[in-house]
Amino acid sequence: MAGRLAVIGSGLMGSGIAQVSAQAGWQVTMRDVDDASLDRGMSAIRDSLNRFAAKGKIAETDVEATLARINPTTDLDAAADADIVVEAIYEKVEAKHEVFKALDKICKPGAILGTNTSAIPITQIATVTSRPESVVGIHFFSPVPMMKLVELVRGYQTSDETLAAARNYAEEVGKTCVEVKRDVAGFVSNRLFSAILVEAIKLVESGVVSAADLDTVMKLGFGHAMGPLATVDLTGLDVMLNAAGNIYRDTADEKFFPPELLQRMVQAGDLGRKTGKGFYSY
Ligand SMILES: NC(=O)c1ccc[n+]([C@@H]2O[C@H](COP(=O)([O-])OP(=O)(O)OC[C@H]3O[C@@H](n4cnc5c(N)ncnc54)[C@H](O)[C@@H]3O)[C@@H](O)[C@H]2O)c1
């Protein structure tokens, strides 16, 4: 049964999570650090809902009804009555620790404290709370309104009840869950994708193949809907540099070491679609 959700962060992922939850009838509080970020998040949700309505996938009246269930705020205390929190701020452990320390004080007993982190261990995030059994990875994929998968990630101390509540929530908002049984860096999705991406970038960087041809191999040879380089342009090169870097630090496994080309592109500001240029131009 739909309940109360607090989403922390109103960026690409946070706004998508707020949208699908509100569409499923949840009352959503969406928190960001300033009004400009919240306005961008709310506009992204409105645009996405309008596109669904234009295609006839939802009724016109659902657009305003869904938006009315989302309360944008800069006040973290608004998470106090949430049944479930999903944190979706920058992929920086210090920033996430600050948020979880505060949530531990603010949230009601028994609230599920979820994180949408791509690659930071859930156990490490949970250490700053007094209730690590309630902390769980609820890992959505981008764009959230379109992608069906959620990885549910067990931290070292996550309880069965927490995992079950997170599953109920994710299924209620229309997602299919897979359970990641141990808290390995990168979980299953980013372990697989980082390994493929690092090898793909090395092949391009060493002149073996062009970016477009590499993607064509994965599409036409292996039936992928998108190649890895078009995918990283969508996800953000900075996000994947962080993710692969985190996995490398945790495992010391060379196959995750971010290639020079990826590091330079991020330093130069070519982050993919969001900056107009990555492996392709937009
Ligand atoms: N981009 C992806 O495809 C993707 C996919 C899965 C998971 N993730 C993960 O989701 C998280 C968010 O990624 P994103 O792409 O949405 O980032 P983003 O940069 O689009 O959004 C982050 C938002 O968090 C806000 N923020 C920063 N500190 C905050 C705080 N203390 N309280 C509230 N808001 C705060 C920022 O103002 C910004 O609006 C990251 O952990 C990322 O690794 C990203």
UniProtKB/TrEMBL annotation:
GO biological process, one term: fatty acid beta-oxidation
Annotated site location: Important for catalytic activity: H139
Positions that bind CoA: S48, K55, S118
Membrane-spanning residues: none
Annotated ranges, domain 3-hydroxyacyl-CoA dehydrogenase C-terminal: 186-282
Gene Ontology molecular function terms on file: 3-hydroxybutyryl-CoA dehydrogenase activity; NAD+ binding
Protein family (similarity comment): Belongs to the 3-hydroxyacyl-CoA dehydrogenase family.
PANTHER family for this protein: 3-HYDROXYACYL-COA DEHYDROGENASE FAMILY PROTEIN, 3-HYDROXYBUTYRYL-COA DEHYDROGENASE
Protein name in the entry: 3-hydroxyacyl-CoA dehydrogenase
